[in-house]
Amino acid sequence: MNDPNALAWDAPSLAEAFGARFRVGAAVNTWNLDPESPACAAILRQFHILTLENESKPINLQPEEGHFVFEKFDRFAAFGQANGIALRGHTLVWHGQVPMWFFEGENGAPATKDQLLSRMRTHISTVVSRYRGKIATWDVLNEVLRDEGGLRESRWYKIAGRDYIPEAFLAAHEADPDARLLINDYNLESSEAKADTMVSLVEGLLREGIPVGGVGLQMHLSLYTDLELLKKNVRKIAALRKLDSALRLEVTELDVSCYRFDDTAEDLDWTPALEEAFRTKYTELFRFYTELADEGTLDTVVFWGLSDAVSWLNGFPRRHKNYPLLIGRGWRVKPAFYDVLALAGNTEEA
Ligand code: G3I
C-alpha cells in the first residue's frame, strides 16, 4: 500500500529497493546528522551514500593558505563510518566557493602557474590523504567545461591552461589510490557540445594514463528537460567505457525543477498537472537509470538535497517555491516516490 501521508523515515526505503542496482544518496549538511533530528531519521532510512552540500568545498576546508578546518568533514566521515554509509567528497577543484588566495601572487600580481599548481596539489593531497579509505568517490574536478563546448575559462584555466586537470587527478590518486576519481559537470544531458567535450577530454586523459574513474552527471533537470537528448548524451559519455571498462557514471546532484531556467514566474502552486508531469519525468528517468545500472554503467544516484523544503532551487536562479525532490515539505514522500520505487522490482516489464 502506498501511504500518501507516509513520512520519509516510515516509508519504504529507496536505498533498500535499489540497493542491488545502484546506491541512492543525498546531499546533506552536517547539522542534518544530529541523531535526534528528522533529517537524520530520513537519511538512515532512505540513503546509503551522502555528499556534503557545501562544507567540504575549498573555501570551507582551507579558507586561508595552510589553515585547514576539518571539524565538519571529520564529523561527516565519522557519521559514515558509524552508520555504514558511503561518502562522496565534493569537491577538490572548482571555480566556485574557492578562496581567492589560490590565485594571488606577489604584489597584487596573479599567481604563477607553478604557484597555483603547487597550492592545488597541497590542498588535494592534504584533504584526500586525511580521508583515505573513508571517501568512496571524489568529485576531483567540478564544472570545468563550458556549455558551448570547450574548457571553461576559469582562473584555474587562465593561469595553468589544461594542465591543472590531469595534475588534479594525479595528486588525488597518489593520496588515495583506491578512491574513485570523477570529473563532474552540469548540462551534460542538455548540451551536445558539452557532452562531446567531456568525451574528448576524458578520452585524452585516459590515453595519457590519467586515473579518471568516471564522470559525474549532476543532472539539475526540470520538467522541460528533453529526455531523448539526455539519453543520447549520456549514452555518448557511457561509450567511454570502451576505453576503460572500469569507468563508471554517477548521477551526482539530481533534482527536477518545475520552472524553466529563464522562467520569471512567481511561485507556482503544486497543481495536479504539475504533479502528473513530475511523476512522468521521474519515472522515465529512473527507468533509464535502472537500464544503465543493469548494464554496469551507472552505480550511484544522488539527490541534491534531502527534501523540497531545503532544496537550493527555492533560491536559485531567483527566490521561488520549488518542488524538485521525491521527499516533499514536512518530510512527506510524494506519489512520484512510489512510482520510482515500483521500478526497482519491475524493470524487465518496464
Ligand atoms: O554560509 C553563508 C552564510 O554565512 C551567509 O549568511 C549566507 C547569506 O547568503 O550565505 C551562506 O552561504 C551560502 C552557501 O550556499 C551556504 O548556504 C551561499 O550564499 C550560497 O551561494 C551557497 O549556495 C550553494 C551553491 O552550491 C554555491 O555555488 C548551494 O547551497 C549548493 O547547493 C550549491 O551546490 C552546487 C554544487 O556544489 C555544484 N553543482 C551545482 C550545485 C547547485 O548550484
Question: Would you kindly provide a brief summary of this structure?
Answer:
This protein is α/β, with parallel strands linked by helices and 350 residues long. It is built from eleven helices and nine strands.
Write up this protein.
There is one protein chain. The chain is of the alpha/beta class. It has one domain: Glycosidases (TIM Barrel), CATH 3.20.20.80. It has helices at residues 14-18, 38-46, 58-61, 71-83, 113-130, 155-160, 164-175, 192-207, 227-238, 272-294, 335-345; strands at residues 23-28, 49-52, 86-93, 137-142, 180-185, 214-217, 220-222, 248-257, 298-303. Strands 1-2-3-4-5-6-8-9 form an eight-stranded parallel beta barrel, surrounded by five helices. Helix 9 links the parallel strand 7 (220-222) and strand 8 (248-257). Helix 8 runs parallel beside helix 9. 43% of the residues are buried. Residues 346-350 have low confidence and may be disordered. Ligand G3I binds next to loops. Ligand G3I is lined by residues 53-54, 96-97, 142, 186, 218, 253, 312.
